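Course assignment 3, question 2. Fill in each field.
Student: A.L.
Task: Predict the tertiary structure for the chain below.
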Amino acid sequence: MQPGNNLNGLSQVPCESALDSTTENNSESSDSDLEILSNGVGDQTRVIQGLKRTIRRKQTEINELTGKLTIADIHLASEKEKTRDKEVVISSLKTSIDVITQSKDLIIKALQSQLIELQTSLDSGKNKPVTKDCQNPKVTESDVMTIYNLSVKIEEMGFELKQKNNLLSDLKDKTQKYECSLREKDEHISKLEAQAEKDTAKISELLKKQSKGGATVDNSNALVLLNCTKIPSIKFVSLPPASRFAVVFEDLPSAGPGWMVIQRRIDGRVAFDTKGSNLDCFNGFGDLSREFWLGCDKIHVLTASRRHELYIELVDFDDAKAFARYDHFVVGGQAEHYKLKSLGQYSGNAGDFLRKSENNQYLVIKTLPGSEIYFEFFGWWIGAEW
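Answer field:
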């Protein structure tokens, strides 16, 4: 930027400062106070916004389904682990029951054999005549106690066997319930996977339709075209609390498309360092088709609403071009005398000469005798050695 009365050998070729209207939004809200709508692309914008909402909704559904699927996998692994533990217990119980059954059978056979022998002894004793040497039967009290103890033991083993059989039956029932639950969860997981595939296919179809329409979804809803003038590069912008105003958008070959021009100087016909009591610097002045200044109020609200870049292009008499680019351009409000609060990081080949003006005020307000307010407009670029 250069003051109006000192062009330093610049020809009548535009020298512009521009704000990048495509920089990311500083606000976390998707609804910005800045809206620019265009009649020519209104329908396409609504379609894009609809696609964007659909994609966000589908992405949320996919995330929810993925979370449910993960939880189901965890539960499935847990149930499978429990099932394996139950199978080990069942196998151990079966082995114990088999051992007990075999032992029981052997003991029963042994007892039956002893009973047969005792019974045979009794029968043979009854058939023999009683002599002095054999006054008592062969079945002694010890034999009776042995038979009694064996009978009690058989009953105890039968009761224990019954308990083992009941436990085995309960374990089989629980195993069947677990298997049924696992089948239901497998079916639910299959349904979730099928639904996720359908949602993915829908999103892919939406993205294909979007790409065919030549539209890209912008995650920032801050800039939407309101309407157009007869000059394609001039748009009207609604920027609360300011009223609607016209701005110039240009595509810069060296910087890309979508730059909002905030200042243009060509031949010095418009003075940019005026002094007086008017408010032109606040609201802007000049001709949008030639030299102009957008206005401090508008630039302040623009840079406060979202992050902007500043791009300064210089052209000399030989059509040689140089530029300075800053990635975080912020201008203070009226209470701060429109101080240049931030420039961000510099890049370019024109030199970082505007850096010395960072934190400088755009104007100085003085009070003349008679309480008349007097403004001295200096501009941040005053003193830059471009």
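Instructor remarks: The domain at 15-36+223-377 is CATH 3.90.215.10 (Gamma Fibrinogen; Chain A, domain 1). The CA atoms of residues 60 and 174 lie 38 Å apart.
Grade: pending
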